[in-house]
Amino acid sequence: MEKPHILVSGAGIAGPTLAFWLHRAGFTVTIVERSPKLRASGQNIDIRGHGLTVIERMSLQDEVRAKKTNEKGLRFVDARDHCRAEFPVGDGTGFTGEIEIMRGDLAIILYEATKKDVEFVFGDYVTGYKESNDGVEVEFANGQPTRKFDILIAADGWSSRTRKIAFPDKNDSCVKSLGQWGAWFSLPWQPSDSGWARWYNAPRGRMLLVRPDNERVTRASMWIIHDSKKFQEAQQANEQDQKQLMKDLFADAGWEADRILKEMQNADDFYLQHIAQIKIDTWSRNRVCLLGDSAFCPSPISGMGTTVAIVGAYVLAGEIVQHWPDYAAGFEAYERKMRPFVDKAQKLAPGAPALANPQTQWGISILYFLLGLVAWIRLDKIMGASFSPPATAMELPDYGTLRLKTQ
């Protein structure tokens, strides 16, 4: 019997995780990635709860732990860099996850775990497809001939091109803006960049965040509550225009803004993103299924994006294998099991993100007073799960060895 052949669009986190499990089950997997090479960049990400369990089932826990940033926790600081509230990493249920790792490091680990068994096609992407009774013929952008697969999985991010093709009637409405924009990049380490993440608020809904990685490089991000046309236009503009917009908006922010803006100009890993969630009423249509951020992006402020991507990939692989060749039943079971978990992951704190990014100095003072009180009486520990991302808020299936019924 010929092995089923699956096409995955996107070589980030969810795509290679899915490919790992499908290959183990006896499937042939091809991953197509728009970037000309593996995108081994990005900021700090968390792996929590069931996400870490899946990593352990992949026997990748040692590689992942070796790349931990070893972030000590989070400090809220004022314009003079005085700490106003401190939240140590503890058991990893707060701001800093149990496993804090650079996105690029995790992408490399997953790529190394799959590259010998999975076909990777870089510098190309899906432009269209035609379905038939026995498969889906996929068209590509850069000269690659049309190829036939059994099913197509869209794991190409929150702004997924593949989702736009498969769900043209739902693609625009599924993007739920949180009214915030963020920019990420790296900058040279300096002595004030300790092992702590430092969070600084400035009036007009602005926030600066610097975090350590494991290579003595500092990772910076700039956040602003702003939903104007300026950002929508900037997203379509070149990188220099995007940097100029951030410079204009943060020039008078105070604290270490001057240093951060100066280093931003030279950063070669800068990227700007609309802070949004993806909420779509179905994750599959015929032979196409959505996975990861393309299906259920919870937004960077949730602390759950990587975890739901890893868990979602594991569950999708397990249900495809258990139901094959009835892929539709597999897709339905995947969504039925994952949707409640995703709903909890997407449930943000009341008023977020605006509440954590006040518009006035008075609002910032109140925020820091309340955070200081919480830290002083250790309310975050007393309340436990109420302050923690819901990283174990489902019964994680155990698919055992994952083998096709015919094997």
TrEMBL record:
GO terms for molecular function: FAD binding; oxidoreductase activity. Residues 6-345 form the FAD-binding domain. It comes from the Eukaryota. Keywords: FAD, Flavoprotein, Oxidoreductase. This is FAD-binding domain-containing protein. Gene3D superfamilies: D-Amino Acid Oxidase, subunit A, domain 2, FAD/NAD(P)-binding domain. InterPro entries: FAD-bd, FAD/NAD-bd_sf, FAD_aromatic-hydroxylase. It comes from Exophiala bonariae.
